[in-house]
TrEMBL record:
Position of the signal peptide: none
InterPro entries listed in its UniProt record: CheY-like_superfamily (IPR011006), OmpR/PhoB-type_DNA-bd (IPR001867), Sig_transdc_resp-reg_receiver (IPR001789), WalR-like (IPR039420), WH-like_DNA-bd_sf (IPR036388)
Pfam families, A to Z: Response_reg (PF00072), Trans_reg_C (PF00486)
DNA-binding stretch(es), residue numbering of this chain: 124-217
Modified residues (4-aspartylphosphate): 51
Protein name stated in the entry: Response regulator transcription factor
Location of the Response regulatory domain: 2-116
Domain of life: Bacteria
Keyword set, alphabetical order: DNA-binding, Phosphoprotein
Residues in OmpR/PhoB-type domain copies: 124-217
Organism: Streptantibioticus rubrisoli
Length: 217
């Protein structure tokens, strides 16, 4: 899952990003509304964690423009204002969910994951295919009933492949969904991660390489 965190309190933004990365999400961070619109125009995000009170371009305007683009991106709006009227107003702007500050990080993570499942084709909370069972909320993976311990990027790649439901996922798509924008696109990080993931999942191999196209399960 790829997430954009938009928050002008840099310490909070960086803390949220670090926590979400530990949950095997690819996270980009910006600190104002103009930068958010620029990133949204370049990258595809599953979820945008959007502070409402932003400098340069207000969070409300960012939300309006994002919704107006008709993208499948989900918006979790953050604000220090926790009144019911504020929550209603935020949702009426087109936000998919609303979380007042201060918040528990565990709740933020749960809400981000819930929004990530609300794609055009709704996905179950636990992904299963070819004997693999992946629970994003618990960060658990099982192969034929045996637990498999994965590093965050390995978990993220496996989640993307399972979410594709048998479709081929290119190396470029894996790079976009499992790594943030600071990753060098010319590295072999995807190939190396897939090789390690195959080894940990064991035999028979379930990740198939489609020459010239990518990978699938």
């Amino acid at each position: 899952m790829r997430v954009l965190v938009v928050e002008d309190e840099q310490l909070l933004a960086d803390a949220v990003a670090t926590g979400l990365r530990r949950e095997a999400m690819a996270v980009d961070v910006v600190y104002d509304g103009a930068a958010a619109l620029e990133r949204i125009g370049v990258n595809d995000y599953d979820v945008v964690v959007l502070d409402r009170d932003l400098p340069v371009v207000h969070g409300d305007e960012v939300c309006r423009k994002l919704v107006g683009l008709g993208l499948p991106t989900r918006v979790l709006m953050l604000t220090a204002a926790g009144d019911v009227s504020d929550r209603v107003e935020g949702l009426e702007l087109g936000a998919d969910d609303y979380l007042p500050k201060p918040f528990a990080f565990s709740e933020l993570t749960a809400r981000v994951r819930a929004l990530g499942r609300r794609t055009s084709v709704p996905l179950p909370p636990v992904l299963e295919r070819a004997g693999i069972k992946l629970d994003p909320n618990r960060r658990e993976v099982f192969r034929d009933g045996k637990e498999v311990h994965l590093a965050p990027k390995e978990f993220a790649v496996l989640e993307v492949l399972l979410r594709s439901e048998g479709s081929v996922v290119s190396a470029e798509q894996l790079l976009e969904k499992a790594w943030d924008e600071n990753t060098d696109p010319f590295t072999n990080v995807v190939r190396v991660t897939v090789m390690t993931l195959r080894r940990k999942l064991g035999e028979p191999a379930v990740i198939v390489t489609v020459p010239g196209s990518g990978y699938r399960i």
